[in-house]
Amino acid sequence: MTLSVLFIGSIGAGDTSLMRAEAMIRQGIHLTTVDGHPAVGTGSLLGRSVNRLFNYPAAHRHVRKAALPALKSGHHDVIWVDKGIFVEHSLLEAARKAGRPVLVHYNPDDPFGTARGAWTTFLRSLPLYDVHLVPRKENISEYHSRGAKHVLDFDRGFCPVAHSPPRPDHPAWHEFAVPVAFTGSYEAERAKSISALINAGIPVTVRGSDWETCPHWNSIRRVYRGPGVRGDNYRLALGAPDITLHFLRHANRDEQDSRTFEIPACGGFMLAEWSPRHADLFQEDEEAVFFRSDAELIDKVRYYLERPDERARIAAAGRRRALESGYDYERRVHDLLTRVAVVAGRHDLLSKLPERPGGTRSAVAMEKQ
Q1: Cα distance between residue 154 and residue 331, in whole Å
Q2: Fewer Cβ neighbours under 10 Å: the N or C end of the chain?
Q3: Is residue 165 part of a domain?
Q4: What count of other Cβ atoms lies within 10 Å of the Cβ of residue 87?
């Protein structure tokens, strides 16, 4: 018997949600996918404002229409909802009637943080899930206080197929092979640090969304290279620079996020904001380099720009750590499904899980597919 999973999540190319779904498929799990996160950011400013005011009714209809036939079409052992901001209470109740599935919610973001988001529907539905998966310890008690049954924490990961070192002979290599780069959306703390680098005369480039709204835009616009990138260009953005910066998202109270693992997996030299979890995941100054202040950031950028051999050694060790420690989605997802079955009291599902993917060799093999 093979584990059967109904996966409701964002399935656009390059989405980490899709990468988790594909990780299940590569393991032999029987997967049915439903687009659980239709685009809501299109149209006029007025249209987007009205949409937000009424809690995205078209998106709710889209998910309901797509998910109901999948629920009725067959038995599922697990219904995995990946950031279910448009998954309604009534849809989860219908899922309860479709056999005896374990309802799992995987949330990479923080519904109790300060980042704006469409969390109304999710918070109403929160008690209906059997197990919640969250990436920060603070969420555990917060979810329980809102009626959650079981809450497990997790670290994010990387996809060995999508996140591997780019080749220097790639046609766009020279566009991304810059001294210092950051790829990510605007946040006030990030803008402050990047402005400090610019003022220190350090050649930094920035890609991502919403930077035009930044109070430091007059200085940052000179180093801004446009919105975020996907596919090969994303691998280049993380792996080609001499130094790839990594700032955590404070509004999400993150101590680790996807780029924590994607940058080393892409062979990048990662200079990241220090956090207790970062220090657990990568050995400081051996597998990654961390900064705790803007002054330390500037000092370390200057130091490592002058030392290419040290950068290459640390980048190689960071990639090796990501591969050997099981930070890829194949093993992340397998471990989460195992923990879900145990805490939900569904030990019968353990025999349906495929064998856990192996060590470095299997991760390297998958990236070559």
Answers
A1: 12
A2: C
A3: no
A4: 29
Taken as a whole, the chain contains a residue count of 369
pLDDT in tens, 181-231: 999 999 999 999 999 999 999 999 999 999 998 998 999 999 999 999 999
CB contact set of 101 (below 8 Å; sequence gap of 6+): 6, 75, 76, 77, 78, 79, 95
Q: What is the DSSP string of 286-348?
A: TTBEEESSHHHHHHHHHHHHT-HHHHHHHHHHHHHHHHHTT-BHHHHHHHHHHHHHHHTT-GG
Is residue 293 domain-shared with residue 267, that is, in the same domain? yes
Report whether 271 contacts 194 (CB < 8 A). no
Other C-beta atoms closer than 10 Å to the C-beta of 23 total: 24
Judgement on whether residues 306 and 213 belong to the same structural domain of the protein = yes
- Rounded Cα distance between 210 and 227, Å, is 8
Distance CA(352)–CA(78), nearest Å, equals 11
The CA–CA distances, whole Å, from 69 to 11, 72, 77, 103, 129 equal 18, 5, 16, 17, 20
- Alpha-carbon distance of 134 to 143, in angstroms, equals 9
pLDDT of residue 46: 55
In whole angstroms, give the CA distance from residue 43 to residue 55: 16
Instruction: For residues 313 and 295, state if they share a domain.
Output: yes
Task: Mark whether 265 and 345 lie in a shared domain.
Answer: no
Structural domain count, the chain: 2
Residues 20 and 144 in one domain: yes
CA distance 149 to 130: 6
